[in-house]
Write the structure tokens for this entry.
Amino acid sequence: MLQKSAVEVGKMIADKEISPVEVTQSLLDHAHALNDKVNAYVSFRDDKSLAEAKQAEEEIQAGQARGPLHGVPMAIKDNLYVGGETTTMASKIHKDFVPKEDASSVARMKDAGIVLTGKLNMHEYAWGIDNNNPHFGAAHNPWDLEKTPGGSSGGSGAAVAADMSFSTLGTDTAGSIRIPSSACGLVGLKPTHGRVAKDGCFPLAWTLDHIGPMSKTVEDAAALLQVIAGFSPKDPTAVDVPVGDYLSNLDRDPSELIIGVEEDYFFRAVDSEIERLVRAQIDALVEQGAQLKTVKIPALAVSEWAELAISLSEASAIHHNDLVNRADDFGADIRFLFELGELFSSVDYLQAQQARRQIKQEFASALTDVDVIITPTLPVTPPKLGSATADLNGEQVDLIDNFIRYTGPSNLTGLPTLSVPAGLKDGMPVGLQVIGRAFDEQTLLQVGRMVEKNDPLGGKRAPVK
């Protein structure tokens, strides 16, 4: 049962084949048993989640179903606020922080009848990509426990891959949904900036942050996006646009699709096997009738600098007072980054924003000629935990730079971006990234479904039991 998708389990619950209490208890037992190995959870809500499951059972029995995920147990990343409950951001400084209100995304999960089982491990303050946390310990990749699950939503990726949560929410500022989704063989969706209200999410960088689903299937991602999407006046960056019915329109004929490929940036300095796997999926779509066009986005040449200047400047502003007053309470890696962020001038920041504008304009232009742009999610596979480098065709390259190289541009543009599995390299998952037009998450999910139907992982699952 735990290996099933969230939507499958939700249907079984709705059909009264299984009880939400039974499902939740089974998941909690499994998650507790595995957590010493995987370290995906930083806290559990056993009693509260079982009470929520019991309420869901009573409502369903009374014919008061709330939707396809009613009664399905899920954990969430520990930078999303649950009112009255500790939210640590996986940090020492906020280890006892208790928010007063739920995040809008969490409130919508509760309104949908989702059972919250606990809070998931993450890189401290979401400011890192390997989830090697000095305060709560590292999360481990269920495909290989010696390797990083990616970050910052590493506990989220590990939990879903190890069947410790049916689906989950991650946050993404430079790739933190898509990186662990690629590394753990999941579907990860960073929605359009403004599509999901992010009040009640502790910020990393105000103008780059996103909240989105991490799931076993495209259908699960669509179902969870359906729950959390929508405007909230509590978030000044939220955009009041209609929310589509993502679940009802997942299938599309590939012959209706025009795929863009940007060769100069997204297929430069990429692992040869990752490139082969991603291009094989593109070729499969073309064989099924999709058209292929080359697009040019020259401003991507400065995207890594722009992402760094903006994210570091904004993050350092957020944490400035703690950096001045209690710097030793930060992990060494993020303390260094916050100190580095203090070095950028206002001129640097504003020039980065100008570069960002140019990148957004060029993406918008490219996406007038194509429906989506397909790239690898990561140019390398996950290294061992604690490694600062990764292997790129036999050369050791900087891990942070390469893990965010292909994901960061979508945070600068705010465009919706999906990562789906494209295959396996040496037993580790490889992700394919789909970038789309603003507020057109539907097309991304449709393309992800097309790739998913090709069964790129060959039915294989993370081996940790």
Observations:
- The longest helix spans residues 346-369.
